[in-house]
């Protein structure tokens, strides 16, 4: 549809002020942009044509929407849950692998579903511990060039293209985060969670750092540099709980969940 500019508002309204325009759904095209020879549905129905359009930003929006729909649909009935992060590089013979299994099993025994990134290493260990203990073991995978899909201990798995869609699922369907020793991915999720709690986007959401030898240096830096420098407050620092004890970690989660449950 082509619409001419107003004709009855006076001769001083030039074509430059009111140029011809074309509507493409909710999008308005003017000047040279309006001179398309075909319509969107015509290009869709006439021929197959180049496939470049599936890589354009408007099409990606539909993929993003689909990821949220699939994630919400798959996880909507998940009971109370805890997300556990940790390194994909943790070896099965590493003591941290057994700790992951112990944490997964302890969460299952306390009635929590366990969510991980679904990959190998510490994530596999946690999923394995939860599954072996009869709990619900969930993996939210991500498309990466160097990992081979979900680990075999995932009972319910969802794969994502986009990190931000996956991150939303971690937060939305978890009552807490437990961070085993990990790399950039674990740090990313850790500080995202802290930011969301600090800004009250989520409430009653504990973050447990498991492994004082590993995380102690980070905590000390936060206190000595970030807190002492006035960049965070005492309440912000108290959002983190350091421990080496599985029962202590689960107790923190249980208390926070009970506080949340009492408030709702």
UniProtKB/TrEMBL annotation:
Keywords annotated in UniProt: Cytokinin biosynthesis, Hydrolase
GO cellular component labels: cytosol
Coiled-coil segments: none
Record region (Disordered): 1-50
The protein's enzyme class: hydrolase
Gene Ontology MF term list: cytokinin riboside 5'-monophosphate phosphoribohydrolase activity
Protein's GO biological process: cytokinin biosynthetic process
Reaction catalysed by this enzyme: 9-ribosyl-trans-zeatin 5'-phosphate + H2O = trans-zeatin + D-ribose 5-phosphate; N(6)-(dimethylallyl)adenosine 5'-phosphate + H2O = N(6)-dimethylallyladenine + D-ribose 5-phosphate
Domain of life from the UniProt record: Bacteria
Bias (Basic and acidic residues): 15-36
EC number from the UniProt entry: 3.2.2.n1
Gene3D superfamilies: 3.40.50.450
Annotated family: Belongs to the LOG family.
Record-given protein name: Cytokinin riboside 5'-monophosphate phosphoribohydrolase
Originating organism: Actinokineospora terrae
